[in-house]
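Worked example 3 (structure in, sequence out).
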């Protein structure tokens, strides 16, 4: 966004013009959300505060009773301009500042360098607690917009209005949990799509002359706990794989009859569209070693990630790996930077596509592309949902999507399937909801 803003300015748009659009959009969203609710706007010294002064003017023009409390006079040129356009009073923000029903936080945005000072923090919390509705300008103040880390603790907001493009903080924890509904306003600048929120996938149409192998043969390797691989296999089948086969030394109960169980491991069958190894593998590393001898694309999940030991083992593997935080650290150690930086570094080191799971799942490609999952229901945090995701990714890869696209499509569909399955779901219900999630793509 900073680069995009500089490009817009170089092309002749003034910061004041961008600020006018940003402030107007903030006012518009606030008015749509809160109507004529009296508002208190907290303004900081930089351009985030500038947006606040502009929003105040637009809200007042709509008949809203607006007060501004500022921590100092504006320091940037554009914010001084915006302050000059405001005809009303500006109170000093301190312990005698009275609350209002609507609180708009325009203290700090992308320019925050460190946490808020204690005295300011105290007033910020008090005014947030004494309001009925809270709206943040760009990001809640205290949040580092690049990483989602809270440099000082942040109260919860009902809405965050941001400009031009989402910032990582809107899609990374813990800040994502504080933003409320995120409204994205166009202010006429273009950000690069290399980092993006995962959107509804476009799946290639099925070949009318196709057969079960061309729709994708997913081959899953069982280990100690066959229930987990059964979930992956089921999820792959429901995701539209043409053929799902499980290598297992003992018969697995309860698998749909359409899923073939074999006691041999034909992992070098050239028809395999994607292998799955890891769910329920347990302490049998030879299953992983075997999988790594196959030339097929593969999804490496769970215990198989732990048993990899070295990320270098993934080189040349055409692999997608799906670690949660613990598995990620076991494989890559403690990497520097934000979750986004760590995901990209891991992809670069291993040459694999990384699905870095959590409430803020990321999909990272070795070529630098990074996808942020849209928010998914908290009830996805239960046993077996990761096994389901692994199966979904394998099905997408098996039907011919490239690794990054396959992982992105599956992560998006997984979130929607969870919404459809509802709060009481177990992982089995999640797998069963996949066809309904896929049906969304036809609407
Ligand atoms: N990106 C765009 O295209 C546009 C963004 N707009 C808004 O501008 C802010 C970013 O503005 P900036 O002036 O760069 O930074 P801030 O307002 O967030 O704050 C900088 C200001 O605050 C001081 N400061 C930083 N940290 C602290 C601290 N912990 N305590 C006290 N003071 C602090 C710093 O020294 C500066 O004085 C972006 O978020 C948008 O809201 C524009 O409207 C134009 C378009
Ligand atoms: K803010």
């Amino acid at each position: 966004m900073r680069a995009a803003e500089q490009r817009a300015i170089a092309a002749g748009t003034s910061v004041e013009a961008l600020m006018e659009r940003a402030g107007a959009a903030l006012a518009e969203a606030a008015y749509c959300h809160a109507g004529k609710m009296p508002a208190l706007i907290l303004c900081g010294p930089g351009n985030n505060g500038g947006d606040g002064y502009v929003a105040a003017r637009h809200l007042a023009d709509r008949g809203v009773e607006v007060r501004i409390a500022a921590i100092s006079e504006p320091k940037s040129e554009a914010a001084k301009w915006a302050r000059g356009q405001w005809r009303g009073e500006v109170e000093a923000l301190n312990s005698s500042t009275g609350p209002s029903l609507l609180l708009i936080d325009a203290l700090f945005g992308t320019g925050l360098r460190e946490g808020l000072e204690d005295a300011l923090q105290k007033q910020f919390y008090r005014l947030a607690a004494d309001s009925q509705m809270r709206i943040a300008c760009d990001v809640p103040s205290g949040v580092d917009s690049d990483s989602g880390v809270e440099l000082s603790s942040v109260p919860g907001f009902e809405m965050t209005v941001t400009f031009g493009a989402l910032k990582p903080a809107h899609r990374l924890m813990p800040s994502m949990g504080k933003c409320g509904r995120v409204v994205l306003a166009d202010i006429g600048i273009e950000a690069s799509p290399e980092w993006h929120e995962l959107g509804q996938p476009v799946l290639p149409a099925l070949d009318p002359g196709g057969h079960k192998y061309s729709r994708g043969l997913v081959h899953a390797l069982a280990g100690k706990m066959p229930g987990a691989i059964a979930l992956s296999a089921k999820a792959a089948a429901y995701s539209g794989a043409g053929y799902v086969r499980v290598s297992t030394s003992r018969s697995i109960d309860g698998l749909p009859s359409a899923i073939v169980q074999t006691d041999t491991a034909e992992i070098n069958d050239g028809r395999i569209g994607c292998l799955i190894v890891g769910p329920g593998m347990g302490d049998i590393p030879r299953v992983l070693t075997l999988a790594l001898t196959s030339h097929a694309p593969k999804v490496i999940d769970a215990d198989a990630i732990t048993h990899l030991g070295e990320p270098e083992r993934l080189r040349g593997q055409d692999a997608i790996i799906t670690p949660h935080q613990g598995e990620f650290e076991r494989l890559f150690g403690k990497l520097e930077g934000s979750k986004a930086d760590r995901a990209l570094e891991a992809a670069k080191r291993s040459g694999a596509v990384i699905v870095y799971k959590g409430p803020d799942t990321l999909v990272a490609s070795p070529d630098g592309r990074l996808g942020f999952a849209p928010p998914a229901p908290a009830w996805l945090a239960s046993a077996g949902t990761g096994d389901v995701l692994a199966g979904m990714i394998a099905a997408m890869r098996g039907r011919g999507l490239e690794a990054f696209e396959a992982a992105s499509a599956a992560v998006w569909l997984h979130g929607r399937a969870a919404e459809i399955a509802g709060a009481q779901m177990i992982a089995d219900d999640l797998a069963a909801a996949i066809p309904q999630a896929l049906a969304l793509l036809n609407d």
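Notes: The chain has a mean pLDDT of 96. The two ends are 32 Å apart (CA to CA).
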